[in-house]
Automatic annotation (TrEMBL):
Transmembrane spans: 21-44, 56-81, 93-116, 128-149, 161-185, 205-232, 244-266, 278-298, 305-325
Keywords: Cell membrane, Membrane, Transmembrane, Transmembrane helix
InterPro entries: CHASE_dom, CHASE_sf, MASE1
Protein name as annotated: CHASE domain-containing protein
CHASE domain segment(s): 455-495
GO cellular component: plasma membrane
Compartmental location: Cell membrane
Any one GO MF annotation of this record: catalytic activity
Record-level GO BP terms: signal transduction
Topological category with respect to the lipid bilayer: Multi-pass membrane protein
Organism for this UniProt entry: Eiseniibacteriota bacterium
Pfam families: CHASE, MASE1
Taxonomic path: Bacteria, Candidatus Eiseniibacteriota
Xref: PROSITE patterns: CHASE
Domain of life, per lineage: Bacteria
């Protein structure tokens, strides 16, 4: 073996642009990197690692197969992902710049190494690890500076670095086998003809089984198991197609489906619905359908159909993404219903506590022939309204008074420590008296207020006591019977 010649051939082919179709690598780079970047931003949560961002790995795979002509498309796709998600022009440009630097660094490392020469070697997925870690170093360093992670622990820095490297490696592992099949050039990888990566021998069967089993077991017990099963199962399916063709795709699909079904049973046994894992089976089925088409594309006679099948693959991907979006919206709706139910229960409990305070006041009147103003003040202070009943404005007592006894009732109230006591109706209250000064008077519904009712009522419900008095003075002496709704509430409380 001539390492020097191999290195020269690697550098020449990895950096050679496609001259026959200049727009194709740009379009492929834009769509591939853009969709992956958008999906990463879509799935991103505050506690999510950047392993969902395959952007650098996908861009690296596209450049390795298509050459430097794909770099503008990679840059544009890396920008469009965050920009479409509303990250703004400046942050999106910064993210795209960091990711394109990582892609260029990984490509440069491949150019000077003779490793990337034979896809048939079992060790080639491992050989991408140094390239992924170098590219991930750029992304991890940018994240450390941009999010001030540098002030954190060394463990956190190492985690960020490995997460970026893992994302890059996953992107390359998933995209290179696909790119090989769809590439129009005869040599898909440096020194490796396309026909030599067609379906292989039965000796590759253990590798296919191992990839599928590892991809499935790695997601066991993880909260985002369906997503990880899809992310890790994708490279095993594509590599299975490259190594064993339709047979490999069928074997991988069956293994992943069996593991996913096991997840579903385990989830149900612990009280879960298993629906999310069940939806993963649809994902696997779509991937399997696409995988069954790939060996035919490698045939020289129908290689011209690669663009059509590529569009079909993107269509399946769009269908998959629609399923993910629908699933996310469904989970959001369920979460909203749970929050609304909790809020409703909290409001019911709060209202029950208010009713309990009123019942205690009723018991006080039932246990005494006469409750003085001083006794009511002591009672209300013992209730600790502010601490035990947040949001309540005050607690008062309204007594039924015959119209003929109204003068004597008012005189007794003034003699009991309230010299300014006087009976008044609801029509005399202003908005400021209600403690809602920011309320627009035009918004009030006064359809139930009828001054003519004042001459028809024989019994009044007069607010005799109200505490705390300083913020509820306007309610002292209020005749609740002067307004229909207040009168109905008072009569219901009396009964």
């Amino acid at each position: 073996m001539n390492p020097g010649g191999e290195r020269a051939r690697t550098k020449q082919i990895a950096s050679r642009p496609i001259r026959s179709l200049r727009l194709e690598p740009v379009i492929v780079g834009t769509l591939s990197v853009g969709l992956v970047s958008w999906l990463g931003w879509f799935l991103l949560r505050p506690d999510a690692p950047p392993a969902v961002w395959w952007t650098v790995g996908v861009g690296l795979a596209v450049v390795l197969v298509s050459g430097n002509a794909a770099l503008p498309g990679v840059l544009l796709g890396a920008f469009l992902g965050p920009f479409v998600q509303g990250q703004g022009l400046g942050p999106s440009l910064l993210v795209a710049a960091v990711q394109i630097c990582a892609v260029v660094a990984g490509t440069a490392l491949v150019r000077v190494t003779p490793w990337w020469s034979d896809l048939r070697q079992l060790a080639w997925p491992v050989r991408i690890l140094p390239v992924a870690l170098v590219s991930g170093s750029i992304g991890g360093a940018a994240m450390a500076v941009g999010t001030r992670v540098a002030n954190g622990s060394a463990h956190e820095l190492v985690f960020r670095w490995l997460a970026w490297g893992t994302a890059t490696g996953l992107g390359v592992l998933c995209c290179v086998p696909v790119a090989i099949v769809f590439a129009r050039r005869q040599r898909a990888l440096p020194g490796q003809p396309m026909h030599s990566v067609a379906p292989g021998s039965r000796g590759d069967l253990p590798l296919v089984i191992a990839l599928a089993v590892v991809a499935g077991l790695a997601t066991f017990g993880v909260s985002n198991g369906p997503y990880l099963l899809f992310l890790l199962g994708l490279p095993s399916l594509w590599i299975s197609v490259v190594r064993l063709g339709t047979r490999g795709a069928a074997i991988s699909g069956l293994i992943l489906t069996a593991i996913g079904s096991g997840f579903s049973l385990v989830e149900r046994s612990f009280g879960g619905s298993g629906a999310s894992v069940g939806q993963t089976q649809v994902v696997i089925a779509l991937l399997g359908m696409a995988a069954l088409l790939l060996p035919a594309i490698a045939h020289p006679r129908i290689r011209s159909m690669s663009s059509a099948v590529l569009l079909l693959g993107w269509g399946l991907g769009a269908l998959l993404l629609h399923g993910l979006v629908s699933d996310r919206e469904r989970h959001a709706a369920v979460a909203f219903d749970e929050v609304a139910s909790d809020a409703e229960q909290l409001a019911a409990d709060q209202l029950a506590s208010y009713a309990d305070a009123l019942r205690q006041g009723a018991r006080l009147f039932a246990a005494s022939d006469h409750v003085s103003r001083r006794e009511w003040t002591v009672f209300s202070s013992m209730l600790r309204l502010t601490d035990r009943f947040p949001g309540i404005r005050g607690v008062g007592a309204a007594l039924p008074v015959a119209d003929a006894d109204l003068s004597d009732f008012s005189a007794a109230a003034r003699a009991d420590g309230c010299p300014s006591f006087g009976v008044h109706d609801v029509f005399g209250l202003g908005v400021s008296d209600l403690g809602v000064s920011d309320l627009d008077v035009s918004d009030l519904d006064v359809s139930d207020l009828d001054a003519s009712d004042a001459d028809e009522r024989s019994v009044r419900y007069v607010s005799l006591y109200i505490e705390p008095l300083d913020r509820n003075r306007a309610f002292l002496g209020l005749d609740l019977a002067s307004e229909r709704n207040c009168r109905d509430a008072a009569e219901e409380a009396r009964d």
